[in-house]
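User: quick one
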Amino acid sequence: MAVASGRKYSVLRRPTVATGWWGWFVTVDHKRIGILYGITSVLFFLLGGIEAITLRLQLSNPENALVSPDVFSQLFTMHALTMIFLAIMPLSVAFFNIVIPLQIGARDVAFPRLNALSYWVYLFGGLLLNAGWLVGRAPGSGWFAYSPLTSTAFDVAGGMDFYVLGLLMLGTSSMAGAFNFIVTIINMRAPGMTLMRMPVFTWMTLVTSFLLVTAMPVITVALIELGFDRFVGTNFFNPTMGGDPVLWQHLFWVFGHPEVYILILPAMGIVSEVLPTFSKKPLFGYPFIVLSGVFIGFMGWTVWSHHMFTVGLGPVANATFAVTTVLIAVPTGVKIFNWLGTLWRGSIEFNTAMLFALGFVILFIIGGLSGVTHAAVPADAQQQDTYYIVAHLHYVLFGGSIFGLFAGIYYWFPKVTGRLMNEKLGKLNFWLLFIGMNLTFAPMHWVGLDGMPRRIYTYDSAMGWDFWNLFSTVGSWVILLGVLVFLHNIMRSLRKGEVAGNDPWDGRTLEWSIPSPPPEYNFAEIPTVSERDAFWSEKYVENEDGIPIPIKKRPSSGGKDTNDIHMPGLSYFPFVTALGMAICFFGVLIHISVIVIGLVVMLFGIYGWAFEPADPEPESGSH
Amino acid sequence: MAQVVSHNDHPTTTTGLDHRKMLMWAFLGSDCLFFGSLIATYLLYRGKSITGPYPHEVFNIPYTSISAFVLLMSSLTMVLALAAIQRGDQRGLKVWLLATALLGTIFLGGQYFEFTFFVEHNGLNLTNNLFGTTFFILTGFHGLHVTVGVIILLSFFVMAWRGRVSQTQHLNIELAGLYWHFVDIVWIVIFTVVYLVEAPNIIG
Amino acid sequence: MLHNLTKLRPVLLLLLVPVLLTTACFPSHPQSTFEAAGPVAEAQLKLFYIIFWAAVFVFVVVNGAFIYAFIKYRRRANEAHLPKQTHGHTVLEITWTIAPMIILAIITVPTITTIFYTAEPPPGKTLELKVIAHQWWWEFEYPDLGITTANELHVPVGMAIDVSLESKDVIHSFWIPKLAGKMDLVPGHINTMWFQADRAGEFYGLCAEFCGTAHAQMRFMVHAEKQSDFDAWVESIKATPGEMTGLAAKGKDLFVNKGFDGTLRGEKVTAQRCAFCHTVEGLPIRGAVGPVLTHVGGRETIGAGIIDNSAGNLKAWLTNPDKMKPGVGMPTLSIADDELDALVAYLEGLQ
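Assistant: Done. Structure below.
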């Protein structure tokens, strides 16, 4: 709704100051928003890590009394929620933001202000989810929140209020972001970049975004139903009125399984970028990697009941879901074999980004194989809700997602900051995490099959689990050490890191064709794409044996006048709208008047947004 | 709500489809799953209430049919509003926008009176059985969608009144129309699975 | 290569140390799923082994290939030119799509047969058992035998137990690792499962689904015994406890008639009588909130399998149950010392 002429209200003037801390509140630049996402998610990752360390300390020896049982359940619930919704997902989104427009040759995302809104809603949602700690009642019914343990009758302390409201906000943020990336990727590709020429990370972002916009509405409905049960007293999950706790499980896992792929596909995309770059070969079997990613996305919708094999759905349903689950191993295998094909006869450089990508492959294979053992329903009856599952999921989410994301950090850090990360510290970082995660999680396979259930705050020494629990706890400190080395490396490299230049890795995709850090407009001239590895093909030609020969003359992009590139103006309405939404959601816990205030602020934000002029006022002199 | 597209710098898109239109389609696809989950909940709990009032005791199908018809007609006026702006007919735009908003408001009024009647006359509310819980939440969230639609339509009406909707901006009206038609279609589904399937129980 | 291995031997031995430690220091693994003692657990374990070895095979082959690639194709200092740019290979793609499918199809067959085998007890004589889960204890009812007990289950060896499972509050999960994998107890649903003990002995059971504060302490004990021992146990449970004398008689009077004051989860409670919550056959009041105590003296553990049943532990439990089992639904009551002794004597007398 552009308003091209007529009276302008001063309140609707677009902010013009992009520098200083205020600049971060009004920015709509995808790169800056990506940095905000990155920093926030790493902070939440540390919080989730502290929760994990505390859990491990409590379990380090039998009948320990470090934390009370209720604090323990809040810790494991919040550890899962924090790592999933506040660390891994937004860290993936940080990469979507920073990398996608650069990879497809665009100057920004399709909806820059919506992008800013996603970030602010995520931040406020994360704070709301964690606000329970401040009043001593964080959510404590498990991240899966099986009713009726979440009802007001059994969640006496009331922590699940924060769960419902926090996740609703975070879901809104995820969906807004996913819509944005769907449109950006489908609609803003550089000329010549057909779908089958898109980098795999862009492909996986697209698949993830589709999963998000289809899975999130389901959990939104589940949360609304749970919220009404809790705040109004409806009967959705109230067994005494005929409500069925199994409905919650279905809704939760119909969302929850696609969610697993939302967590892993971006990491797979990153690995599919890093492996070719540091093997000096194109990705092997590109169309198969892409199609198996799409297939995994589809299959994510057909397997949710494998989280419910012990719920009593009956042998026919269980057998069906066992078969669909096992089928997912096929496209996953295709990806892994093609990664192997990428390395084969390559020239493998073992720098930190590559180590993390290779670590991803090795650990993910272990997680995938243990996954097959609980696709077998009867075997799963012994594994469900034991530490064996804890081991499996951490191999997939820590060894998988986190390692993939670390590979991404080391890979794209020079593009974002203009400086390389320190390799010595990076390798130390990698080995500490790799060894630490195996020390922590490998023994859990054993204690799980030795009968140790999940989510117990204490155990009896007679069970024979003492040694391996202490072992895991020691391992968790090795992980912590690895994370501290990582933080030190970031801080150090920001100040003293070697200057990276445009293309430190001899990269294959378009983001390496522009300066590091990229200018606000990214590309002085929108590139034209004629091949899959768009930037590589500008640098090399293949001789008759398929050996790449460098092209002497580098394409120049210096001459173009960048003054007339039109970039979207700054805006504070995304922040205002998100703030209004946050006030509204907090208001549910405080008083109806607060909700009304929040609604007013939100409406002001939305209308201000809609009627915001496209450009700053002429008299401000910036245009 | 809408992305500002700058006047002389209109970026061409890969597919040729406007960003906002694609966003709207993606959003509506996502909203299908939202209503799908609510409708699934309703259907799963259909006939599972352990106490009354039951659907056949409270529904007045002729009454609801009329309000459904009103909402359906609003889709027609919406189409006329879009056609008007596309040919640059400002007066037609104003008339049909207002008519659409008015019909939507009549539907909402109908829902308001229906809800009040159920609560006061039939003693059905959100908490007294599964039917009340699922019925009010499903139709209530649809009503919320209609309310948002009416607000959007009225906003456009006010803009049109001040001469702020030019012929070149017909996409705004088209997007509002997409949303409005979607909300109508959802009502047809809800009206069928909630009301019409009970018709045999009411007559028989 | 061989030389390298000799050099590595101490390291390899070192790797074995923790394994030896666990087996040496902790000879008993009361909840190990590897020590199956009945047909259901055995079938589940067998299936696990099939997949486990298939997984080991895949792991060795695939990770082996990766490690080979790491070593063989690492970048060397004096590489003449960049590697050949290969883009794919259709035959390979088809091979590595079909090969996993074959392996997966092979493991799917025993998976499905085991699903159906473990779903229903085999034809023949079975013993019916109804399990009702409460936060945080177990109620066991034998409908055929007309008896009810709590937290300790007795089953005859060699007989299939046909179990139906219900919950009174939240979702729990019934699990006896050595006898059968778990099955959830969902409010509003009746689930079924079966298990059988092939040898006499004591087996640990537990709740496996997070069910609130005291989830870690919701355990139970299974006594599998010869048919004759089982029959004798059934008779003893059917018998109403005999007349009490002395201290125990005083305890019985307190159990039924005395209202104690105290606290429950931070709230004050008054005039709580033991019998309001607990059933003991033959008493005028039958409580139904807590576990049935008719033969509690004969049980091995108290507090839902968390601690040995001894006079000292019983006394500690009655003094402050919340300390032993945080979150428990039994209030902490102010009971005088002589009253405690009397109550303990009475409960121990309920053989």
